[in-house]
Design a protein that fits this description.
Blueprint (H helix, E strand, L loop, with lengths): L5 E3 L1 E4 L3 H12 L4 E3 L2 E3 L2 H10 L4 E4 L9 H7 L7 E6 L5 H4 L4 E4 L4 H25 L5 H11 L4 H8 L3 H15 L4 H10 L5 H4 L4
Parallel strand pairs: 1-3, 2-4, 2-5, 5-6, 6-7
Helix pairs in contact: 5-8, 6-8, 6-9, 7-8
């Protein structure tokens, strides 16, 4: 597995072991990603997993346990607000139900189609985040995370892998940070991070 690959935590919630295993096998083959799928076979199992872990994407059969109530699940797990939900369609499904999901996979989709859909989903998420950050003159939480990574000496590539972003998005965030703070040097950014308690002095002592 290449070190350039982005890691994604993906849960596959499907009652059929054949479908579940098949989806997991396809996910492992998606290029440019390091995916180790977690499989659950019931809504209860998904709830238990969600209480203990923070996935990036949850793939769910809308017919799980008869009918999976996604709005109720989101309400019960507010800390998963950033998670993307993909409907795994194996039967004819009401379009009103599918509107609750960010994307949909069909069991008839091949590797190329699933790869394209996953890339599109992640790209759209990054673009929405960039637009929100551009609208504000204050640093977003994501930008603060990037400042912390930068002053700790991390490269754009390392930051992208840590935060599950593309390198292009990291560079865009860094430009926005420089514009908002009017700070254009690593030393200035380090002082800003210390003053605003984004890092401890001990975290960056070796970089000073």
């Amino acid at each position: 597995m290449s070190s350039n690959n982005l890691s994604l935590k993906i849960v596959v919630a499907e009652s059929s072991v054949i479908i579940r295993s098949g989806v997991s096998a396809v996910l492992r083959r998606i290029p440019n990603f390091d995916i180790h799928p977690v499989e659950v076979n019931s809504a209860e199992g998904l709830g238990h997993y969600a209480n203990l872990h923070q996935p990036d994407i949850i793939i769910i059969n809308p017919a799980l346990d008869g009918w999976f109530n996604l709005p109720a699940f989101k309400a019960e797990h507010p800390r998963l607000a950033g998670v993307k939900y993909i409907a795994l369609i194996s039967l004819v499904t009401n379009n009103n139900v599918l509107k609750e999901y960010d994307e949909r996979f069909s069991i008839c989709d091949d590797l190329d189609i699933i790869t394209a859909k996953l890339n599109s989903l992640l790209r759209n998420d990054e673009e929405e985040e960039e637009e929100k950050d551009n609208e504000s003159d204050t640093l977003s939480q994501r930008e603060k995370e990037i400042v912390t990574c930068v002053v700790k000496g991390m490269t754009n590539k390392a930051i992208a892998e840590k935060l599950f972003l593309s390198i292009h998005t990291v560079i865009t965030h860094r430009r926005n940070i420089a514009r908002k703070l009017q700070i254009h040097s690593p030393a200035g950014l380090t002082i800003y991070a210390i003053v605003n308690k984004l890092v401890e002095l001990s975290d960056i002592r070796e970089k000073l």
